[in-house]
From TrEMBL, chain A:
Pfam families: NADH_dh_m_C1 (PF15088)
Keywords: Electron transport, Membrane, Mitochondrion, Mitochondrion inner membrane, Respiratory chain, Transit peptide, Transmembrane, Transmembrane helix, Transport
Cited function: Accessory subunit of the mitochondrial membrane respiratory chain NADH dehydrogenase (Complex I), that is believed not to be involved in catalysis. Complex I functions in the transfer of electrons from NADH to the respiratory chain. The immediate electron acceptor for the enzyme is believed to be ubiquinone.
Top-rank lineage group of the source organism: Eukaryota
Cited InterPro entries: NDUFC1
Electron transport keyword on record: yes
Annotated compartments: Mitochondrion inner membrane
Compositional bias per record (Pro residues), positions renumbered to this chain: 1-23
Gene Ontology CC: one annotated term: respiratory chain complex I
Record's subunit section: Complex I is composed of 45 different subunits.
Protein name: NADH dehydrogenase [ubiquinone] 1 subunit C1, mitochondrial
Chain positions covered by the region annotation Disordered: 1-25
Family membership noted in the UniProt record: Belongs to the complex I NDUFC1 subunit family.
TrEMBL record, chain B:
Upper taxonomic lineage: Eukaryota, Metazoa, Chordata, Craniata, Vertebrata
Database matches in PANTHER family: NADH DEHYDROGENASE [UBIQUINONE] 1 SUBUNIT C2-RELATED, NADH-UBIQUINONE OXIDOREDUCTASE SUBUNIT B14.5B
This protein's name: NADH dehydrogenase [ubiquinone] 1 subunit C2
Organism name: Zonotrichia albicollis
Entry's family note: Belongs to the complex I NDUFC2 subunit family.
Gene Ontology cellular component terms for the protein in this record: mitochondrial inner membrane
The entry's keywords: Electron transport, Membrane, Mitochondrion, Mitochondrion inner membrane, Respiratory chain, Transmembrane, Transmembrane helix, Transport
Length: 84, 111
């Protein structure tokens, strides 16, 4: 078998073909980091749990306030009409 | 445009776990599980803090959305009843109930 002829060495470094007038090649701003799930970011975990606890407390408080306000307005309306 | 006007507080508040808060809380939990799946983590066992946070956010948003929906429905009902009250001539109950046989045309069998 005849040996495959080798390609001639390029006389200058290869650059990707580009249409004339296109902007020069820029580095992307996005960097990908390999996530490490074995070592949790305890600050983020604590913040997430703390925020969840605060949100539940706020929600339950809001609900109790809504119930109290509704009862108050119902009592006031009944008072005006003087029904039993 | 206020999300919850003051008069909405005269309505009975929905229970804490209503269809909106449960559904959106479940949707938030699902999105945390999906995030685990897309990042090749154990689906249920990983990111418990994320699951809890997103489920909580869903419950909060769902509760307030249901409150707003109930307010809008009550407002529409009030306007409808007010209109009926102000236009009684358009909403008179027809004298004598009609039987369905009087409303339908006579049956003409086609052979």
């Amino acid at each position: 078998a005849r040996p495959f002829p080798a390609l001639p060495a390029p006389s200058r470094p290869l650059r990707p073909p580009r249409a004339p007038g296109s902007p020069p090649f820029t580095r992307s701003a996005f960097v990908v980091k390999k996530a490490n799930n074995a070592q949790p970011n305890w600050l983020r975990v604590g913040l997430a749990f703390g925020t969840s606890a605060a949100l539940w407390a706020l929600l339950i408080k809001q609900h109790h306030e809504d119930v109290a306000e509704y009862e108050r307005r119902k009592a006031r309306a009944h008072q005006c009409r003087q029904c039993s | 445009m206020v999300f919850l006007p003051d008069e909405s507080r005269s309505l009975p508040p929905p229970p804490l776990l209503n269809k909106g808060s449960v559904w959106l809380g479940f949707a938030g939990w699902m999105s945390a599980l999906l995030d685990n799946a897309f990042n090749h983590r154990p689906i249920f066992g990983a990111g418990i803090h994320r699951q809890v946070l997103l489920a909580t956010l869903g419950c909060v948003v769902g509760y307030h959305l249901v409150k707003r929906a109930e307010y809008v429905h009550a407002k529409v009902d009030r306007e409808l009843c007010e209109y009926i009250r102000q236009h009684p001539e358009d909403f008179r109950r027809s004298t004598g109930k009609k039987r369905i046989g009087q409303l339908l045309e006579d049956f003409q069998p086609v052979r």
